[in-house]
Amino acid sequence: MGDRRQETGDKRQKTEDRKQKTENRKQKTENSRGDPVGRLSEDWRQPMNIKRIALLLTCVIIFLSLSPVCYAQNDIKSYYIKSSLKDIISLIIREYVEPVKEESLLKGAIEEMKKVDRTIPADSCQSWEAFEAAFDRAYRQNPSLSSKLGEAAIKGMVRSLGDPYSLFMDPQEWDYYRRAMTGGTFAGIGVELAVKDGSLIITSPLIGSPAEKAGILPGDEIIKINGQSIVGRDFYEVSKCFDGPTGSPIALTLKRGKDRLDLRIIRQNISFEPVKAKIIGTSPPIGYIRIPLFGPTTDKEVKKALEIMKGKGITLLILDLRNNPGGDFNTALKTSAFFVSGTPLVKVYRKGGHLEDKCADSSCDFSFRIAILINEGSASAAEVISCALSDNKKAVLIGTTSFGKAVVQSVFSLPGNAALKLTTSRYLTPGGIDINHKGLKPLIVVKTVYPVPEVSKDPCVIKAVEYLKK
After folding, report:
1. Domains 185-270 and 276-469 share a fold
2. Pairwise CA distance, residues 8 & 16, whole Å
3. Torsions phi, psi for 317 (to 5 deg)
4. 43-58: string of b/e by CB count within 10 Å (b at 16+)?
5. pTM reported for the whole predicted model
6. Sign of the CA dihedral 216, 218, 223, 228?
7. Which of 36, 98, 152, 452 sits at a 20 to 30 Å CA gap from 316?
8. pLDDT band for position 78 (50/70/90)?
9. Which residue of the set 380, 390, 402, 425 is catalytic?
């Protein structure tokens, strides 16, 4: 009995102890409700709340570090763009054919950048440090304009040169240029443009192009594009107007002598024609090679045709370079070297007034009596081979005076899949004559008939055949 009472008492004591512990826990819990840290420590023990706490801490960390990271990223991007611009300035000063001052390049850059951000001070071109500071301010005020500011700066530098043949090509234009030069297709109307005596001239319409079919001729002057006058607009801006998707129209107002022509032409897929070769006549047979453009493989195509003709015993040759706007300078030299050796092909004027003779790398492989057909659409690389052969008494020129573009451009790739095309040299004839803006005069004058008839009925070809048979 006593033992039972003792057990009952023990149980009562334990029960009271449990009640006391429960009251203590409640008190602690009540005290912790006013303390965020206390509540947080309680919640930390709950498995379902761990993710919430981790998310909260992550948000706090991101918030505290967001501004420094953004500024660091912006500083890196700004540094990269400025570094690229500094390299481009050095490139232009080093490679452009005429002397260039950094201040004039920076002035052009600032003028163009102000079109993107009017708050840029006009006097920021006095030094690289001033330009850099202006760029940084504009960039930090609106980082989204970084690419536009960088592109505007490059365009402004190039435009400050005052050279219509030097230009900046964005990724789309660079792709267009490469496809055109390598025989790929591109959308357009098929014209080559050049500046002559302050006017924008069509050097030549490409054979079979919408421009040729519309009746455009070499030497036509462009007055308006889509109803807008081109007066006061630079070469780069105007040339971009010809870009557009296949099937889209472009309206041109042209000046031809005293006449004005209004044309509406639909853009189509364009590609340069390859070298065409054939044998005309039988007594004696005469080789005929038409070169529409000097691309990277033109010399190989011409050599293949010449080997076939040589194998057939042909000794008379007509090279048709009419409406050939030029192309790759080195390819023209390689092609010239098939016929000339031991003497200069042209004289090249480089930066600093250095004049050097460009001679053939190897001995000539062929011996033909040659007539070269030229006209006002024959320019640049086409004039290189024309003067190389005619000055060296290897060919006679027949047709009309050539266009007169005796400058050479080099293309430099830029970051971002863009490119810079710069005039890096000028060339003179082997005899030292500058034909820029003057052209080459033919020995025998014959005008090109449009549309150009088939070879057997072409007045220029007929005259060349008569000359070669003498």
Report:
1. no
2. 12
3. -145, 135
4. eeeeeeeeeeeeeeee
5. 0.77
6. positive
7. 452
8. low
9. 380
Could you check whether the bond before residue 459 is cis, i.e. omega within 30 degrees of 0?
no
Distance from C-alpha of 101 to C-alpha of 332, rounded to nearest angstrom = 32
How far is residue 197's CA from residue 176's CA, in Å, rounded to a whole number?
27
Say which of 82, 114, 394, 405 is annotated catalytic.
Answer: 405
The H or E element spanning position 309 is helix 298-311
**Single-letter amino acid, residue 354:** H
Residue indicated by tokens 């092909």? 345
Q: What is the rounded distance in angstroms from the CA atom of residue 46 to the CA atom of residue 455?
A: 93
Is 300 known to be catalytic? no
pLDDT tens for 334-373 read: 999 999 988 999 999 988 888 899 988 766 778 899 999 9
In CATH, which of 3.30.420.40, 3.40.50.720, 2.60.40.1270, 2.30.42.10 is domain 185-270? Answer: 2.30.42.10
- 365-to-27, 118, 290 alpha-carbon distances in Å: 109, 61, 19
Task: Enumerate the domain spans of the chain.
Answer: 74-162, 185-270, 276-469
Kindly report the number of other CB atoms within 10 A of residue 135's CB atom: 24
- What mean pLDDT comes out for the span 10-16? 49
Architecture, CATH, for domain 276-469? Alpha-Beta Complex (3.90)
Number of Cβ within a 10 Å radius of residue 371: 28
Instruction: Answer yes or no: 405 catalytic.
Output: yes
Identified catalytic residue from 220, 299, 320, 391: 391
Structure tokens at 52: 């919430």
Helices (H) and strands (E) in the chain, counts: 13, 19
- What CA–CA distance (Å, rounded) separates 267 from 248? 6
